[in-house]
From TrEMBL:
<feature type="domain" description="THAP-type">
    <location>
        <begin position="1"/>
        <end position="83"/>
    </location>
</feature>
<dbReference type="GO" id="GO:0003677">
    <property type="term" value="F:DNA binding"/>
</dbReference>
<keyword id="KW-0238">DNA-binding</keyword>
<feature type="coiled-coil region">
    <location>
        <begin position="149"/>
        <end position="176"/>
    </location>
</feature>
<dbReference type="InterPro" id="IPR026521">
    <property type="entry name" value="THAP2"/>
</dbReference>
<keyword id="KW-0863">Zinc-finger</keyword>
<keyword id="KW-0479">Metal-binding</keyword>
<dbReference type="InterPro" id="IPR006612">
    <property type="entry name" value="THAP_Znf"/>
</dbReference>
<keyword id="KW-0175">Coiled coil</keyword>
<keyword id="KW-0862">Zinc</keyword>
<dbReference type="Pfam" id="PF05485">
    <property type="entry name" value="THAP"/>
</dbReference>
<dbReference type="GO" id="GO:0008270">
    <property type="term" value="F:zinc ion binding"/>
</dbReference>
<protein>
    <submittedName>
        <fullName>THAP domain-containing protein 6-like</fullName>
    </submittedName>
</protein>
Length: 200
């Protein structure tokens, strides 16, 4: 039986047809913490991934992949983020309705007030987005704050790994250069100590 992508509404199967389309399949992470993040990203009730559960490459961004080797691999710490969820699984847009936020909205000049479109949804104008207050306020929901913190922590960990890898690569290159220079020195010394070539 062919392996099928575990994402909601995705019917990609591991077969020759998907391989020719360039779709790759990836097992859920082995570590419990990372596996849980993938399970949460799928938004499926009571879903628990097994050791053979797969996700296809269509649920990851292009920058999530490491294509330097012979096989396409996911970079460390990535979480699937591209899904086509139905309306009941979409994340609701959090709106802050606290006394403080109402006071701030009331104190904003008219050109900084949210624009209300015909759909009834409010979108922030460019000027409002640029105000310091909106750039630095924290979300009202603790879960949103935790999610922001986890996202920032993941970015920091990723950058630290990239820095560490870059330093290791730099050290390897320096060692290789030193070895090549030593070899060159030895070759030159050997050439200098050789007797002159006999003429025919």
């Amino acid at each position: 039986m062919p392996d099928v992508c575990a994402a909601y509404g995705c019917s990609n199967r591991r077969c020759l047809k998907t391989r020719t389309r360039g779709i790759t399949f990836h097992l859920f992470p082995k570590t419990r913490e990372r596996r849980r993040k993938w399970e949460v990203a799928l938004r499926r009730d009571s879903f628990a991934a097994s050791d053979r559960t797969l996700l296809c490459s269509e649920h990851f961004r292009s920058e999530d992949f490491d294509r330097t080797g012979q096989t396409v691999r996911l970079r460390d710490g990535v979480v699937p983020s591209i899904f086509n969820f139905p309306a009941h699984l979409q994340k609701p847009v959090a709106t802050r309705r606290t006394t403080t936020s109402r006071r701030v909205e009331g104190a904003l000049p008219m050109d900084l007030m949210p624009d209300v479109e015909a759909t009834g949804e409010s979108s922030l104008s460019c000027k409002q987005q640029a105000t310091d207050h909106l750039l630095y306020t924290l979300p009202a929901c603790p879960k949103a704050i935790k999610a922001k913190l986890e996202e920032a922590t993941a970015i920091v960990r990723k950058l630290q790994r990239e820095k560490s890898n870059a330093l290791k690569r730099e050290k390897r290159v320096k060692n290789n250069m030193k070895a090549l220079l030593r070899m060159r020195e030895q070759i030159i010394l050997l050439e200098l100590n050789l007797p002159p070539a006999k003429s025919l």
